[in-house]
Amino acid sequence: MTSENARHAGSGEPDPAEGAPRFTDKRRIDPDTGLLREPTPTEEAEAAAAAAEGGADDPVAHLDFETPDTGALAAAEALAAERLDELQRRNAAYYNLEQQYSGYVKRSKSEALVAREQGVAEVAEALIGVLDDIALARQHGDLQGPFLSIAEKLESTLARFKIERFGAEGEVFDPTVHEALMHSHSADVTEPTVGTVLQPGYRIGERVLRPVRVAVIDPDA
Asked: Where is this gene product found (predicted)?
């Protein structure tokens, strides 16, 4: 080391041989003009080097990203739409089947009820003759002993199936429930009236099995 270099080294001053210290102004705004500074070639080189070094540290830089295959995507969407259409068709078929079954159950119950009522009506119509004999025997006082007990059991059993006897003298004549077998006239009535019940009627609810057979009294003309 020369004496000159030693002198500069000991004094703390910059060594002329090493050159003066360099300062890089990285401010983007020029403090003198207040305008945006254009980067110098040196700054551009340093920025490019820094970007290159940062790219080397990128963890996904080595991955090869392929462009999505639009054809495969379209095919997948078409397949999904097809499956959705199939599902909707199956749901509709299941709904229709469920509605058909529900309708079948309702019809079956309704038909069973009608069949039951029809069966009860046929049995009752077959027993009307027996019921007429019981009514006549009761009117003449001949229904006694075990026959009375049997008749009462029969009538109570029929009542459980809502089979009832109806018709009484003094009722207004109604052709929907009365059958006129005899006619007479009287000033004591103002409209056709049942004078005598010749045979009682029988019905199940609103269904008439046999109308009441009566003698009708008409008012005088």
From this structure: Cytoplasm
Per-residue pLDDT tens over the stretch 107-161: 999 999 889 889 999 999 999 999 999 988 988 888 888 999 999 999 999 999 9
Query: At 72, phi and psi to the nearest 5?
Result: -65, -40
Domain ranges of the chain: 72-161, 163-220
Q: Where are the beta strands (DSSP E) in 161-211?
A: 163-166, 178-186, 193-199, 201-204, 207-210
DSSP single-letter state for residue 202: E
Neighbours of 15 (CB within 10 A): 13
Residues 83, 214: Cα–Cα separation, whole Å:
75
Please state whether the predicted TM-score (pTM) of the whole model is above 0.85: no
Do residues 14 and 21 lie in contact, with contact meaning Cβ atoms separated by under 8 Å? yes
